[in-house]
Protein 1
Amino acid sequence: MESVAYRAVVRGVKLMNLALMTAAAVACWQLCYATPGAANSTALLIGVVYFVLYMTYGRIYESFLVSLVRISEMVYSQCLALLMSDALMYVIFCLMAGKLVSLLPVMAMFASQLVLSVLWCTAA
């Protein structure tokens, strides 16, 4: 039987992963797509939507099973969850901007999230 402290630590580590990936998405929106003087509520909305998307795809692809799978499998499943979440966020960015926006910042966001994911998986 697992202790309560162990489950709390594992849950905290999982939330840290979600927070890191969400912060990258919000930073991408703020730095590349948001208009100057845009409301902070837009960034909050982007953060909430990305958090829910990534958490949903992470559970579908089982990318948060910290102690049950190998690191390579966890990185692969997180890569799939990130790819799906980032693709949907690109569509949302285009809809919010009202035009087709550049794909390069989203690709850079995906690359940085992959690096964070690999670091997180090895540390977890």
Note: The chain is about 80% helix and 0% strand.
Protein 2
Amino acid sequence: MNHTSSWKYLSLAGLCGTAILAADIALADITMEYGANVRYRYEHFDRDEDATTPPGATSKASTVRLGVFAKAKLNENLSAFVDLEAVEQLFEDDYNIPTIPGQTIPGYPVIADPQGTEVNQAYVAYNNAAYNTQVRIGRQEVMLNNGRFISTSGWRQNHQSFNAGTASVSPLDNLKLDYGYLARVQRVVGSEASNGRADMDSHFFNIAYSIPDIGIVKGYGVLLDFDDELTNSADTFGLRFEGNMPLGTMRLLSTLEYATQTEAGDNPNDIDAQYLLLEAGLQISNIAYRLGYNIVGADSATDKFITPLAHPFNGWTELFLNNPSLGADKHGLEVWYASATGKVPGTEQLTFTTALYDYNADTGSASYGNGLDLGLEYRGVANTLLGWRFGLYDADELFSDALRTSLYAAHTF
């Protein structure tokens, strides 16, 4: 069944269900809830001159995002939700979005915050607290675990969302089951971009079991079948453990994750790749210290682990959105990192983030370089957030030196 037929049947099922409940809804007292949020951000992205970057090519983006939502509670179990987002440029607009006509500055670094207005979410939801069940049909934001494989990309001004049907149920206190069908992705670059939308016939599932004072064990599958972006079609299956154990006055933190990936659908590439994440740390007072090791595997430029629905990981310069290749025999990504996050000592509303990275090739001996992330956030009264973050990349055999920094402020009404 192709994605169009699947989506039509999914939509028809939702309409039929709504019609069946219409009489009950008509008799109910419909309650409405409204809200809005605004976020301003100035982002500066500078990369040293290389073969693709002209001298003095520094991108500067000054953007404001306005989100407006309305929620209608139709009866005890049924509700509807609509979320609109608008992004506008203010003061500075010297940055590159290469897939949008009129917002392209060749050679300048990419800042993926296009101007425009979109429907971010519009779905009908069924919630039953007695059975710990939630079902959503329509356009919605979807986040799988930590967002490494499916993400809302919430840092970017235009969030990523999906035309989808999702369901979540907890048949036991410690067990949660999630399933989703994805018919289309609405990417952060917006509907005007040539790569802003992609149709698909994709599925995902996640099984999570909580062990008190130990952690959470998860098993998941992400089965992507794109209609036109054939090289993004892949089946991924993985296991993930998120540990959080008491250790005297501290807590022992750990993350263990392994996933394997093969090609799917009409993907012309042969893929047999692995993903590995090992992380250990301690929570001491209000600060979490972590050491980590991450492999995004690759044996060639086409046989490599891909994450086409994720936001960037491994550094705030966002250079590693795609799994890299360097030359004929140097592919994939191996990362060692150390981080510390938490409250600034002596404060309650000011938090910090710092991380150091060492990047190398997974296949072949190549040093990609090093990275540094620094960040501060102040969460004040009246739902206000002020923040700064800074990403630095010191290149070796891959890319060129880069610096990306942002100042931002947000308020929720």
Note: The CA atoms of residues 210 and 216 lie 4 Å apart.
